[in-house]
Amino acid sequence: MAKNIAKNTICLWYDKDAEAAARFYAETFPDSAVSAVHHAPSDNPSGKKGDVLTVDFTVVGIPCLGLNGGPVFKHNEAFSFQIATDDQEETDRYWNAIVGNGGKESDCGWCKDRWGVSWQITPRALTDAMAAGGAEAKRAFDAMMKMQKIDVAAIEAARRG
Predict the structure, then answer these.
(1) What is the DSSP code string of 99-129?
(2) Residue 22 burial by CB count (10 A; 0-12/13-18/19+): exposed, middle or buried?
(3) Which end of the chain is more exposed for a tag (fewer CB within 10 A), N or C?
(4) What is the spatial distance between Cα 99 and Cα 10, in angstroms, rounded to a whole number?
(5) Count of alpha carbons within 13 Å of 101, Cβ hemisphere only?
(6) C-alpha to C-alpha distance for 112 and 102, rounded to whole angstroms
(7) How confident is the model over 103-132, as pLDDT tens digits?
(8) 80-160: which CATH topology?
């Protein structure tokens, strides 16, 4: 009988690198870990008996299951992890870890890891500015629209006007 299975778990489909992805997330983000690696009990459409089939892991406290399902499905921006950061140092650390490990920069604080999973590295300064509403939010939003990685000082300056 399975123990401590979360009622709701995010399942991420990988070609064959679920374990490598889970270990990268565990090394990169706090409150993240790989808790189990399960091997296929027999041959299947995406692999052979004994291959890693699923990986149980958490990303910043969120329970996830990595499934090595083969090349049929690819990740896209319809799903992303949004990581709130407290300052530029933390923003840079996560952004650089993802992009520097074979990932790709995108716009407005978004990037993709080397497995194609999308991440929003979002400083609290940006979410606070957006929550302020009105002209402050518009100025911060307009500044963000010109960025890839979010520049906290530029967001704060735009918010002030």
Answers:
(1) HHTT-EE-STTEEE-TTS-EEEEEEHHHHHH
(2) buried
(3) N
(4) 23
(5) 20
(6) 9
(7) 999 999 999 999 999 999 999 999 999 999
(8) 2,3-Dihydroxybiphenyl 1,2-Dioxygenase; domain 1 (3.10.180)
pLDDT at 85 over 90: yes
Domain ranges of the chain: 10-68, 80-160
CA angle 10, 15, 21 (to 5 degrees): 60
Q: What span, in angstroms and rounded, lies between the C-alpha atoms of 117 and 18?
A: 11
The helix or strand, by DSSP H or E, that contains position 55, with its residue range, turns out to be strand 52-59
- Summarised one tens digit per residue, pLDDT across range 11-62 is 999 999 999 999 999 999 999 999 999 999 999 998 999 999 999 999 999 9
CATH fold of 10-68, please? 2,3-Dihydroxybiphenyl 1,2-Dioxygenase; domain 1 (3.10.180)
Query: In the structure encoding, which two tokens stand for residue 50, read together?
Result: 């004994």
